[in-house]
């Protein structure tokens, strides 16, 4: 969960909001994290972290971090209030995130006059993302412990420093994402390059390995269990000219998202499909209308690439009026317990029939008619659809037109063979 360590704050590669405020609640998370960090030594060197984050709006998020640290004769605590603003640059894959944190650092030193010594600390972060590419950096002003040896005369100082990074995410498969990253860190006299490799499996399990030139080797592992709980472990060991004891971290994060705000199954599927579509190279001669999904839960489907279709001309709109929309009077599309062949405009997919029926009732209450069905007897999903057509071209145009209606912006096209 955290590669951050006692010696040098700011080396986390999994929960990056702990060091860079531009990552606070990046994916709309509502959660609280608790981390304990300890040095592999007889000296009592420990840190404890509590961090909460929430995203009340699509482009605005907030967070609150509190930490306590023990280092030989030093005891200090820090509290940050974090804010993030997202500036969209055309679509959900192209944006800029701006983040800022401000807080207070309180220091106590045994047998000295440094009692409740207060300092203002801050963090600034910015990153630009264009689909898989992310470029950014963050500036920090906080307490730095630059040495864990007993001979250090002044192991505790407040400094400014910055980190710049460049990363690119590779889609290995529907389940795996691999993200290499290069970082340059500059804090006090600690200037070093860093290479990071991050492997993510279905968003639930994550492994990060960081190699810091002439500094340390750091590995962190995180896993989600029981849907709302994430546990983690991190290990860091000094290399090169650095001399410090091994540092271990364990953490627990609890998802605080209310159930009514949890992303539904159909929207998760649509986002995954839209991501896959975005990664497919455009063909200028003949824009792809649909993309086959061979190895996903929605097998053998066609997902409509709405963003790549040119605007429908007025003449085409008039032509669509020749094809009536689905009504209660239309014959059933279920043949032999499954949907008959054709092109279906899908609003959502649900594993539970009750959820599909509730969605249909909600649509009816708002004046819209819909039905649901399965591809075959072995299909796990019940697809809620608002129209069906035999002709692919008409179905594609209808899907585009439907997306322009309020409440149907995320409909997509499913082909049943």
From TrEMBL:
UniProt xrefs under Pfam families: PorP_SprF, SPOR
Classification via PROSITE patterns: SPOR (PS51724)
Bilayer-crossing regions: none
SUPFAM superfamilies: Porins, Sporulation related repeat
Taxonomy, superkingdom: Bacteria
InterPro entries membership: PorP/SprF_Bacteroidetes, SPOR-like_dom, SPOR-like_sf
Annotated SPOR domain residues: 337-415
Protein name: SPOR domain-containing protein
Taxonomic lineage: Bacteria, Pseudomonadati, Bacteroidota, Flavobacteriia, Flavobacteriales
């Amino acid at each position: 969960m955290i590669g951050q360590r006692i010696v040098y704050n700011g080396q986390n590669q999994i929960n990056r909001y702990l060091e860079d405020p531009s990552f606070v609640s990046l994916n709309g998370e509502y959660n609280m994290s608790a981390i304990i960090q300890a040095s592999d030594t007889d000296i009592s060197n420990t840190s404890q972290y509590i961090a909460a984050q929430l995203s009340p709006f699509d482009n605005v998020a907030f967070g609150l971090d509190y930490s306590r640290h023990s280092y030989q004769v030093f005891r200090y605590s820090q509290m940050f209030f974090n804010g993030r603003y997202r500036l969209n640059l055309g679509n959900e894959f192209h944006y800029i995130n701006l983040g800022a944190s401000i807080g207070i650092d309180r220091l106590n030193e045994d047998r000295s006059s440094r009692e409740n010594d207060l300092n203002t600390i801050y963090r600034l972060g910015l990153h630009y993302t264009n689909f898989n590419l992310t470029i950014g950096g963050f500036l920090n002003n906080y307490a730095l412990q630059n040495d864990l040896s007993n001979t250090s005369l002044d192991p505790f100082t407040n400094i400014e420093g910055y980190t710049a990074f460049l990363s690119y995410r590779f889609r290995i498969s529907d389940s795996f994402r691999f993200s290499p990253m290069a970082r340059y860190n500059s804090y006090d006299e600690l200037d070093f390059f860093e290479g990071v490799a991050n492997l993510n499996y279905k968003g639930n399990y994550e492994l990060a390995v960081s190699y810091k030139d002439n500094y340390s080797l750091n590995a962190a592992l995180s896993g989600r269990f029981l849907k709302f709980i994430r546990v983690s472990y991190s290990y860091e060991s000094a290399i090169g000219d650095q001399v410090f004891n091994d540092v271990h971290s364990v953490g627990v994060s609890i998802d605080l998202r209310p159930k009514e705000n949890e992303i539904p199954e159909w929207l998760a599927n649509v986002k995954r499909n839209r991501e896959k579509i975005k990664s497919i190279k455009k063909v200028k001669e003949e824009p792809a209308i649909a993309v086959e999904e061979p190895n996903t839960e929605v097998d053998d489907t066609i997902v409509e690439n709405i963003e790549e279709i040119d605007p429908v001309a007025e003449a085409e709109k008039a032509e669509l009026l020749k094809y009536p929309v689905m009504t209660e009077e239309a014959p059933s599309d279920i043949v032999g317990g499954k949907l008959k062949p054709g092109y279906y405009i899908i609003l959502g997919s649900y594993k539970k029939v009750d959820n599909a029926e509730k969605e249909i009732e909600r649509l009816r209450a708002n004046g819209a008619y819909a039905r649901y069905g399965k591809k075959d007897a072995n299909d796990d999903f019940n697809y809620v659809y608002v129209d069906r057509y035999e002709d692919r071209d008409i179905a594609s145009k209808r899907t585009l037109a439907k997306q322009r209606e309020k409440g149907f912006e995320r409909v997509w096209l499913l082909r049943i063979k």
